[in-house]
Design brief:
Blueprint lengths: L2 H11 L1 E2 L2 E2 L4 H8 L3 E5 L8 E5 L2 E5 L5 E7 L4 E3 L10 E3 L4 H10 L4 E3 L8 E6 L5 E5 L7 E7 L18
Antiparallel strand pairs: 1-2, 3-4, 4-5, 5-6, 6-12, 7-8, 9-10, 10-11, 11-12
Helix pairs in contact: 1-3
């Protein structure tokens, strides 16, 4: 499997194997094992937390559901858990805008420019089926290269709920 296959599948479906906005954290860890614990995302308590499986970063809410998904592509190599990337765990980065657009078109995945994240030395597009946003960095006026792909959160709000106790990551 190639990285563009992985990205277009996520853009079409909003899923990367067991990972999707609103997925139960226990289901994700059962399928992928324990992640790197990057740390808390707020100043109040232990949750919400940011976890990573290589370059796949997941924000997990107080209710232990995946709330945001981000795939970092700005490094030399994009690392993903092998079970959700077709058995491959490392892919070459430097993914150009024309390559992403071509792959989305070939996969029949509609997209459009995303003006809200297009400014300065970056541009963006959004895949309409999933809301996946592809943000590209433009180096010295060259071909824009993928910096990050993210999926929108599911919009739930756990602020009124107390943190869950005795539930694993």
């Amino acid at each position: 499997m190639e990285i563009l296959d992985v990205l277009t599948d996520v853009a079409r479906t909003g899923r990367l194997g067991p990972v999707f906005s609103g997925a139960r954290w226990s289901d994700v860890t059962a399928a992928l094992g324990e992640p790197w614990d990057v740390g808390t995302m707020g100043q109040c308590g232990e949750w919400p937390r940011l976890f990573a499986y290589g370059d796949l970063e997941l924000s997990v809410c107080t209710c232990r559901k995946v709330s945001l998904i981000c795939l970092q592509a700005w490094r030399d190599t994009v690392e993903l858990p092998a079970p959700i990337a077709g058995g491959t765990s490392a892919f070459p980065a430097a993914i150009g805008y024309p390559d992403v657009v071509s792959a989305l078109d070939k996969a029949g995945c509609p997209w459009q420019p995303y003006p809200a994240l297009t400014f300065g030395d970056q541009c963006a597009l959004v895949a309409t089926p999933s809301g996946a946003t592809f943000t590209f960095e433009i180096f010295d006026g060259g071909v824009p290269e993928l910096n990050v792909m993210g999926l929108p959160g599911d919009g739930h709000d756990c602020s009124g709920h107390p943190p869950l106790q005795h539930i694993g990551r």
